[in-house]
Design goal:
This protein has 352 residues and is an alpha/beta fold. The protein folds into two domains: 8-137, Rossmann fold (3-Layer(aba) Sandwich), CATH 3.40.50; 153-347, Rossmann fold (3-Layer(aba) Sandwich). Helix content is 33%, strand content 16%. It has 13 helices and twelve strands. The protein has helices spanning 17-33, 66-74, 89-96, 126-132, 153-162, 187-198, 213-219, 234-242, 253-260, 274-277, 310-313, 317-331, 341-347, and strands spanning 8-13, 38-43, 59-62, 79-82, 101-105, 116-118, 171-175, 203-206, 225-227, 246-250, 265-269, 284-288. A six-stranded parallel beta sheet has the order 3-2-1-4-5-6, sandwiched between helices. Helix 3 (89-96) links the parallel strand 4 (79-82) and strand 5 (101-105). It is globular.
Length: 352
């Protein structure tokens, strides 16, 4: 147990966007217990923008920019917390800071490099895993608020400008991207879903990076909505999601951003560990075929699939459309006419 209140803390977070989002409640818990502590982050270029969605971060250094890594190593910290789950390099970096207290997961030989090594389980929700790293600081597991991310005002203004043509019409955000091909549902299915939603008065807005732009154009080709893929920063993407009625996404960092903004989600899981990464609560529906070979991802690594990601391919458009209808009916996000018996029978889908 650490008895002196720390005045400066460094959290190391290499990896993807989803891991970074799940770390935000931990940062808030630290600040709640130690309000005077300065909190810095050592992240990667690919996930560092997530920390713009937290008010509690003093500075973000980049793990993959040598000069910034050097600056982080030269800064004096009372506590360093390495939140990486498996790879050893970040544990070495934590040791090199020479902080008197270093905390990290005891998943392999890396445990020897920390003053406090913490057990890690593949079966725990990742937010719970990160909270466990705070035990040496005397911080107990706290209730995660429904809204734990904050959109910067400038990002909200940009989102308003991009969405001006929608005329205030309710829309569903779609994210067709994924970090690996095995987690993609497919642009054609997303387009069919967009057509289905258009029939009930819901437009769609596609978000994503430049690599998702072509898929986005295919999805909205029927005039069902707006393709913003490749046109927004991460903070602006978050602002768009916050204005939507719901997000549909595979297992992705964008999915976790929606959860952190309190936006309902329909998520599609296959290779990923739903028990660890899937959104929880009544405002989130998870579609998972639970094939015998699923999940197959361990410590972020997914092996090549010999059956063409059947776990994702078997999720149908009707299943996703029905999940969207059920969830939006429950949360009050559907246009009123689409819940009428006549529409449900005409669409050939089950009544919520």
């Amino acid at each position: 147990m650490v008895y002196m209140p720390p005045s400066s803390i460094l959290l190391i977070r290499p990896g993807g966007i989803g891991d970074a989002v799940h770390l935000i409640p931990t940062i808030s818990a630290i600040k709640s217990t130690y309000p005077d502590a300065a909190i810095d982050i050592l992240a990667e270029k690919r996930n560092s923008a997530v920390f713009n969605l937290s008010h509690h971060v003093r500075h973000v250094f980049h793990y993959d920019k040598p000069l910034e890594l050097f600056r982080a190593l030269r800064t004096t910290y009372d506590v360093v917390i390495d939140t990486e789950q498996w790879h050893r390099l970040s544990a070495v970096v934590a040791r090199m800071t020479r902080a008197p207290v270093s905390i990290g997961f005891a998943t392999n030989e890396r445990a020897r490099l920390f003053t406090h090594a913490i057990a890690y389980s593949q079966d725990d929700c990742e937010i719970d895993s990160f909270y466990r790293l705070l035990a040496p600081l005397g911080i107990a597991r706290a209730e995660v608020p429904a809204l734990f991310l904050a959109v910067p005002p400038k990002a909200a203004e940009k989102a308003n400008m991009l969405l001006e043509g929608g005329g205030g019409r309710a829309f569903v955000t779609l994210f067709p991207g994924a970090s690996i091909p095995e987690r993609r549902w497919g642009a054609e299915k997303f387009r069919n879903l967009a057509d289905m939603l258009a029939a009930v008065g819901l437009a769609v807005v596609v978000v994503g990076g430049g690599e998702d732009q072509e898929q986005g154009e295919m999805i909205v080709a029927g005039g069902t909505g707006l393709n913003l893929a490749g046109r927004t920063s991460l903070s602006e993407t978050a602002a768009v999601i916050q204005k939507s009625a719901l997000l549909v996404s595979g297992d992705s960092g964008v999915l976790h951003i929606a959860v952190g903004l309190g936006v309902p989600t329909v998520s599609l899981f296959g290779p990923g560990r739903a028990r660890k990464w899937a959104p929880q609560g009544e405002r989130h529906l998870v579609l998972n075929k639970k094939l015998p070979c699923s999940p197959c991802t361990t410590f972020g690594t997914t092996p090549p699939c010999p059956i063409a990601a059947k776990c994702m391919a078997d999720i149908t458009v009707d299943e996703v459309g029905n999940a969207v209808t059920v969830l939006l009916t429950a949360t009050g996000g559907l246009p009123s006419f689409c819940c009428k018996k006549e529409w449900l029978e005409g669409a050939g889908r089950p009544k919520p």
